[in-house]
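Tokens as discussed.
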């Protein structure tokens, strides 16, 4: 089953073309990274996955998510857990008093708060407890957002997206703002999730590309310039071209990093 199947997809904002002739396939179980510089079109591509924007009409265009062309947007959001940094800001701004338990529970209504009119069954509560245990964040259950570190809140937001048991999770620059230890710890958590569902990582940080990611999609100036196996694409030539810098890349124990520039 393909999660994403795009053929000849073009996107424009105010008549300005931003994504050009996108052909992309991501299969279930095929953990994928979408890698590109700032402004290359990564977030726009992600908005296409979630149906927050639509392609420019063309007879040649095919756009299917989980094999379907048309989706009820709320139904689709249950299948695709999407984690953006915007979610993080929304929670810390709007609901600093929410606990880890409540952040997770809010996933059932995709809301940024818990409201009186929302009804939760014992099954909802059980699911939240199960997710907190799976992610090993029970210690955050009763902690308030205002008392959480960036990494702690981000883990609760991941928990929130898991209550629907999405088939795939899309993570947009998930380790922004985390120190090295928190980053490594967070990536270990994502690896655990990757044993159960497909991860699509959107980033410009090589360090975020964990071992289980097999497919790389390189995007530059709104075009997918390469799509294929990680080992074939994460090399000096491809990455220097993508980031417009002479980069020397190294891989150690299955993890990639920029060794030097120039
Ligand atoms: N709402 C919008 N209206 C007009 N242009 C936009 C809009 N959003 C993005 N763009 C433009 O589309 C292009 C791609 O932007 P996009 O945010 O998708 O890139 P990105 O790779 O996610 O960048 P970053 O890594 O900085 O988040 C950029 O030129 C950007 O200026």
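Sequence:
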């Amino acid at each position: 089953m393909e999660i994403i199947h795009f053929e000849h997809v073009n996107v424009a904002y105010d008549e300005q073309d931003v994504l050009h002739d996108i052909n992309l396939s991501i299969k279930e179980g095929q953990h994928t990274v979408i890698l590109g510089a700032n402004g290359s079109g990564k977030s726009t591509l992600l908005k296409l996955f979630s149906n927050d924007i639509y392609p420019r009409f063309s007879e040649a265009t095919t756009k299917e998510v989980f094999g379907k062309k048309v989706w009820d947007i709320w139904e689709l959001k249950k299948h695709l857990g999407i984690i953006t940094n915007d979610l993080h800001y929304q929670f810390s701004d709007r609901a600093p008093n929410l606990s880890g338990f409540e952040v997770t529970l809010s996933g059932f209504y995709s809301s940024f708060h818990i409201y009186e009119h929302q009804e939760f069954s014992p099954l909802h509560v059980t699911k939240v407890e199960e997710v907190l245990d799976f992610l090993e964040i029970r210690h955050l259950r009763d902690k308030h957002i205002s008392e959480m570190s960036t990494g702690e809140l981000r883990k609760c937001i991941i928990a929130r997206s898991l209550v629907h048991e999405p088939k795939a999770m899309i993570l947009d620059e998930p380790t922004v703002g985390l120190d090295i230890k928190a980053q490594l710890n967070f990536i270990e958590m994502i690896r655990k999730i990757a044993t159960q569902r497909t991860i699509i990582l959107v980033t410009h940080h090589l360090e975020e590309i964990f071992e289980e990611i097999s497919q790389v999609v390189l995007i530059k100036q709104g075009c997918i310039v390469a799509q294929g196996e990680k080992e074939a694409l994460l090399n000096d030539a491809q990455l220097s071209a993508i980031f417009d810098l002479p980069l020397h890349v190294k891989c150690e124990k299955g993890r990639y990093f920029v060794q030097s520039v120039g």
